[in-house]
Amino acid sequence: MPHAATVMLAGATVAERIRAAVPDAVREVAPQWVVLEPSAAFEAMAAVRDDELLDGKYLVELCSVDQITRIDVVYHIASLAQNHLFELKVPADHEHPEVPSVTPLWVGATLQEREVYDLMGVRFPGHPELTRLFLWDSFPGHPLRKDFLALPGGQKAGLSQFPKQIVGETGGEFRPRRPGTGE
Amino acid sequence: MPIKSEPVEVNIGPQHPSTHGVFRMVAMIDGERITDVKMIVGYLHRSMEKLAEERTYTQNIPFTDRMDYLAAMTSNLGYCLSVEKLAGIDVPERAQVLRVIFAELQRIASHCMATGAFINDCGAWQTPVMYTFRDREKVLDLFEMTCGARITTNYMRIGGVAFDVPDEFLPALDMLINDDLPFRFEEYDQLLVGNEIILMRARDVGVVSPEMAINASLSGPMLRSAGIAWDLRKADPYSGYDQYTFEIPVGYNGDSYDRMVIRIEEMKQSLRIIRQAVHILPGGPHKTEVPLAIRPPAGEAYSRVESPKGEVGFYVVSDGGAAPYRWHVRAPSLINLSVLKEMTVGQTIADAIVTLGSIDINVGEVDR
Predict the structure, then answer these.
(1) How many domains are contained in chain B?
(2) Mean pLDDT for chain B?
(3) Chain A nearest CA to B88, separation (Å)
(4) Which of B205, B212, B218, B236 is nearest to B361 (CA)?
(5) Is-contact A79 A136, C-beta < 8 A?
(6) Residue B146 domain flag
(7) Cα(A20)–Cα(A44) distance, integer angstroms
(8) ipTM over 0.90
(9) What is the CATH number of the domain that holds B211?
(10) Rounded-to-integer distance, Cα B275 and Cα B280, Å
């Protein structure tokens, strides 16, 4: 019986179903989402899609968040038949992010994974054609990363340190703002 | 003796009237039939998601106008809803109803454009567009009357809407939705739905199966043309959509013709919603008082609305600051293009143009 309005499934409910299918796939359970082990992420996604209760046939969206020490790939998955929605996250290494592609499971991920690769630099092994989507092929760096800078002041693309820590060393003629703090 | 043919590469766009903006498509054809399609996007990429990380939540609203510039109101609404969800801001009753009125007017304007452009792609060069633009223009006049802008409206605010409607608005709206548009939509029915030329041109062109539609995350008229009655206004009601009576038009074959008919039917349903909304429009404030720089608590929110193109979703991550830490937009125009190859391979170039027109992409939203 479908819900009258979309229900956001609790992380614990989703984690329980994933654990039943792929025992080692869950790394962490939050109230609203489940963090998966990257090595078992694909099996877990396949289980989520074919699970009777979760019924994740519809990949609502796929995006990524730069968390400075790691990059999270975020999946919102829905069931149109039962009208619920849940969220999965797969953490990836910040220097060389790599997350298995879910294009064999959902065709709708094709362009979104290309977008994430283009703007955040996450590689998706198993993707049929992982090329840049918006930017040109020779574009330096991946602009949605927090350490990406293409601005004057000696800052270069692909810095591994967060710019705020470099401000003192560059003499302060250019002061990058830390997003979200208003500084 | 069979005729030998050689594959030829045909480049369509980015400057081409049929590509609805700066969308580029490279088709390999063998004889008359397309064997492979490659889409190239990014000519309109303005890196909005990056820019938004440097601006306050309110300063980001104009970006949403420029994403889907044919449906600015619904993008505005989706973004404001996501921030309200994250910050826990309540919206006054009057603002809720005004939002519904403007979102539905926007749906009519966008579908007018989509229908006209689709017929244009079918080969009726420019004449139908003039008819649908005539009606779209009347909707845009109401936008201009309320917020001063026709296309990039920047009307919704976090916690309500920017301005209350002027005194002349409701009489003008009443004339539009009761005297003018119903007759225009009847004209569309007579001219387009059941028109033999359009039937021959668009039936069984660009077919999507229901399984494919779900697997490829399609949304909006693309999903509904495949027979799946999925509309977020019903499935995940926002802004009080659950108190209005309306129906979800659904197609049967998943072809281009169904999508055109669904759009025309949706415009009629939008009129129904607006009539009910005008009837229940309460008094009171049009906006909650919110601080100039809103600082939502650290956390994340995903909220979605049914735009004319499909599901527009906004995923906002906050670190407690005045600007979003991360802002991602689920763009229906981009995701609906996932099936472009499946739909067009095996077709002729002329049918591929019809198929692309029926998807109703907006390159501003594809590229962001």
Answers:
(1) 1
(2) 88
(3) 16
(4) B218
(5) no
(6) yes
(7) 10
(8) no
(9) 1.10.645.10
(10) 9
A123 DSSP 8-state letter: B
Would B100 be classed as within a structural domain? yes
Distance, CA of A41 to CA of A30 (rounded, Å): 17
Which residues on chain A are in Cβ contact (under 8 Å) with B311? 60
Nearest to B112 by CA among B228, B266, B235, B241: B266
Decide if B224 contacts B230 (C-beta within 8 A).
yes
| Main-chain dihedrals φ then ψ at residue B186, nearest 5 degrees | -65, -40
Q: What is the pLDDT of residue A149?
A: 60
Instruction: Give how far A16 is from chain B: nearest CA, Å.
Output: 23
Residue owning tokens 């939540």? B57
Phi and psi for B214 in degrees, rounded to 5?
A: -75, -45
Nearest to B290 by CA among B87, B146, B142, B115: B87
The two beta strands, B24-30 and B7-12, are antiparallel
Q: Integer distance in angstroms from the first to the last C-alpha of chain B?
A: 51
Look up residue B176 and give its DSSP letter: I
CB contact under 8 A, B313 and A76: yes
Structure-block tokens of residue B257:
């013709």
Does residue B49 belong to any structural domain of this protein?
no
Cα B62–Cα B68–Cα B69 angle in degrees, nearest 5: 70
pLDDT tens per residue, range A64-111: 998 888 899 999 999 988 888 999 999 998 888 889 999 999 998 999
Task: Give the Cα separation of A123 and A120 in Å (integer).
Answer: 9
Instruction: Report the distance separating Cα B139 and Cα B173, nearest Å.
Output: 9
d(CA B57, CA A129) in angstroms, rounded, equals 35
**What range does the domain containing B110 cover?**
61-336+353-367
Higher pLDDT, A162 or A119: A119
Chain A touched by B330 (CB under 8 Å): yes
Q: List the one residue out of B251, B259, B254 whose CA is nearest residue B212.
A: B254
Q: Which residues contact B275 (CB under 8 A, 6 or more apart)?
A: B177, B178
CATH 3.30.460.80 segments of chain A: 7-139
Structure tokens at B148: 């001063």
From B47, B298, B59, B54, select the one nearest A179 (Cα to Cα).
Answer: B54
Tell me which of B126 and A149 has the higher pLDDT. B126
Rounded distance between C-alpha atoms, residue B199 and residue B207, angstroms: 14
* Domain A7-139 grouped into CATH 3.40.640.10: no
Flag whether B300 is in a domain: yes
Q: Which of residues 41-100 of B touch A (CB under 8 A)?
A: 41-42, 45, 47, 49-50, 53-54
